[in-house]
Amino acid sequence: MAEDLDMFNEDYNHSYSEEKNYIAPTDPLVQQKLEWFQDQKLGFMMHWGPYSEWGFIESWALPDEDTSWVKFDYGPFASREEFKKAYVDLNKTFNPVWFEPDKWAQIAERNCFKYLLFTTKHHDGFCMWDTAYSDYKITAPDCPFHTNKNADICKNLFEAFRNHGMGIAAYFSKADWHTPYYWAPGMEHSAWTSRNPTYDTEEYPWLWEQFVQFTENQILELMTKYGKIDSLWLDAGQVRPDNPRCKQDIRLSEIVAKARKYQPGLLVADRTVGGENENYVTPEQTVPAKPLCVPWESCVTLGGSFAFNYDDEYKSPRTLVRLLADIVAKGGNLALNIAPRPDGKLPTKGVKALDGFGAWLRKNGEAIFNTRVCVPYRTGKYAYTQNLKTNTYYAVYLADENEKPKEFEIPFNKRVGRITFNGADVPFTHENNRISFKVPFDYPEEEAYVFTMKGE
To answer: Under CATH, what is the fold of the domain 5-367?
Structure first.
């Protein structure tokens, strides 16, 4: 995998909400939860569902209009319709009998992840919890996994991660391409599907209202029956009142108000929409070029895709360290996506990459967690953070492979009384806003080197 952070430049993939569209929450509990969120820095993101059986992109092969960028191969299927039916029927063979939620939580905890971000439902509509509002779910009789003790995947996974001290963020797709309230069969345009409804919501308000109630019911179900939820991460940005192609008002503010009665301080990420229900911004496969002045979280894949891929390659520990340091220096969190295998295990090579990443964090996490942005943010190979409570600054040197310099020069204009590196004091000079020193001892090679600078 490429080691250069340019692979995550802000033009790499999806757009994200502009800072000018951010509305800061006024609820003190939400404000408090946002401070907690910005301390966490590292989320364990997971896309998982029946599509994992094929090692295939999640959901996006279903709408006819999006096939140009999905670029899938029909393979053994005689037609696109045959392919789509086979995709929908994957629930009838999805049987991840090796799913052991506590083992997943152990892997996340030992590698310093602070919260889980899990796909409760992607756009294809398959529910990974025991919902009362759809039969297209992991606990339905036509899914062979429904008799397993861990069949309610969300319930068991959320409990396991909470037991290991991590927060819970529930990914939920506002669009649902399985329910007849969104892609409605028998409508004039239902033969050709896009990411939007197959009908005009203003022409058929009674049908749209059924979808609104369906969405509210499912969200509140997750908020009331699945323990403490820290964040509701809403995907499918086309579901918005001002969509010029098809108005899609689910009265989200009303749903959020109801959800917060059960989950006080709940964060909501109505991603790419902006406004009062996007409490933090979510760049996808992208890192902003400059610090953002609002809370944010980049979701980036450990491999090449969000869903499991049999031939996937995984980012090296060095790339992951560089990525996280770059994000944190700009004030963000990293939601790092690792996709489980269809049998319920995590991919061995992916876990190995996480273990290398985690080893660095166990030693150097003080420079990452509970920190805030620190001017000059990024200069050359340096990423800066600070802990406001302890008056401590950190300069993270993003080393190239096999690089072990003895002399360092850190551009920095704040007053520093002491510098430590690998647990030992380092004598230094500080002139013309540059800190200079030689390391007088040998030290182990790492993915990045952390210099701890105590403010005077």
So the answer is: TIM Barrel (3.20.20)
Residue 382 neighbours by CB under 8 Å, 6+ apart: 395, 396, 397, 398, 410, 411
Looking up tokens 């005077």 gives 456
C-alpha atoms less than 13 angstroms from C-alpha of 283 in its C-beta half-sphere: 28
Q: How is residue 445 written in tokens? A: 């090679």
437 phi/psi in degrees, rounded to 5: -165, 160
- DSSP output for 123-166: TT--BSS--SS-SSBTTSTTSGGGGSTT-SHHHHHHHHHHHTT-
Residue 292: name the closest of 267, 317, 323, 329 by CA: 329
Amino acid (1-letter code) at residue 424:
A
Q: Tell me, what DSSP letter sits at residue 22?
A: B
**Domain range 372-455, CATH architecture:** Sandwich (2.60)
- Taking CB atoms within 8 Å and a gap of at least 24, the contacts of 324-327 are 324/41, 324/42, 324/357, 324/368, 325/367, 325/368, 325/383, 325/396, 325/398, 325/448, 326/5, 326/8, 326/287, 326/378, 326/383, 326/398, 327/287, 327/298
Contact 5, 326 (CB under 8 A): yes
The model's pLDDT over 143-183, given as tens digits with 9 standing for 90+, comes to: 999 999 999 999 999 999 999 999 999 999 999 999 999 99
* Residue range 100-131, pLDDT digits in tens: 999 999 999 999 999 999 999 999 999 999 99
Tell me if the bond preceding 376 is cis, omega within 30° of 0: yes
- Compute the 3-state secondary structure of the chain and give helix, strand, coil in percent, each to the nearest 5: 30, 20, 50
Identify whether the C-beta of residue 305 lies closer than 8 Å to the C-beta of residue 312: yes
CB of 23 closer than 8 Å to CB of 276: yes
3-state DSSP call for residue 72?
Answer: coil
Identity (one letter) of the amino acid at 22?
A: Y
Nearest to 285, CA basis, from 21, 57, 7: 7
Q: Lowest mean pLDDT: which of 7-21, 232-246, 401-415?
A: 7-21
- Give the largest Cα separation in the chain, rounded: 76
Q: H or E segment at 42?
A: strand 42-46
Tokens of 335: 């939601």
Contact yes or no for 382/404 (Cβ under 8 A): no
Alpha-carbon span 78 to 68, nearest angstrom: 19
Q: What CA–CA distance (Å, rounded) separates 120 from 114?
A: 19
As annotated, the residues of the chain forming the CATH 2.60.40.1180 domain(s) are 372-455
pLDDT at 372 over 70: yes
